[in-house]
Amino acid sequence: MGTRKVMTLLDCGALVTVVSPDITDVLLELANDGSIVLKKRPYQASDLEGMFLVIGTTNNAKLNRQISNDARRLKILCNIADCPKACNFMLPSIVKRGDLVISISTSGKSPALAKRLRKDLEKEFGEEYADFLRLMGAIREKLLRKKHEPEAHKHIFEQLINRGLVEMIRDRKKEDINSLLLEILGEGYEFESLMQ
Question: Are residues 138 and 185 in the same domain?
Fold first, then answer.
């Protein structure tokens, strides 16, 4: 669980320090390449000094309470996994596909349900959504350079969505994609060039 949270924090641009006597291979690799600061030892209250937020992912209830109490004393944001009472903020479960971010929260009532929903949504929203948003962003940028008003684009994007563009991308039907782009947008909107 801790490794996944570290990866999410890094994706958000956070400077991450990990304190744990037990380290996954992924975390060790991140430490070796300088992506995170690693303190391979048990937690100490002084580890919170200068931190903006702390996330505790231990299986030790006593240690979790100590981390929460230390954070509260220092007025630091704190999230303890699977223990809402020890938190002063909640982390949603997240599905990320490029620029598409789907957030799921049960407000701490059922992390198991949030995890289940995340797994279901990961199956439903595949990597094609990342490519779809890259394409839509490139189309939007090109239209804006032609001095089109953003409100005028609404019907264009709705047509692209409603005509199955996501499915075409998923199925890698480039000819169909290009035909649809030509029909709706006209010349100069080819999938390959827009995705560069």
Answer: yes
The reply to whether 134 and 84 lie within a common domain is no
Query: How many C-alpha atoms does 98 have within 13 Å on its Cβ side?
Result: 13
DSSP 64-81: HHHHHHHHHHTT-EEEET
Domain range for 104? 92-125
Q: Do 28 and 46 fall into the same domain?
A: yes
pLDDT in tens, 147-171: 767 777 889 999 999 999 999 999 9
Contact 104, 121 (CB under 8 A): yes
What's the chain's length in residues? 196
Q: What is the pTM for the complete model shown?
A: 0.76
Secondary-structure percent of the chain, ordered helix, strand, coil, rounded to 5: 55, 15, 35
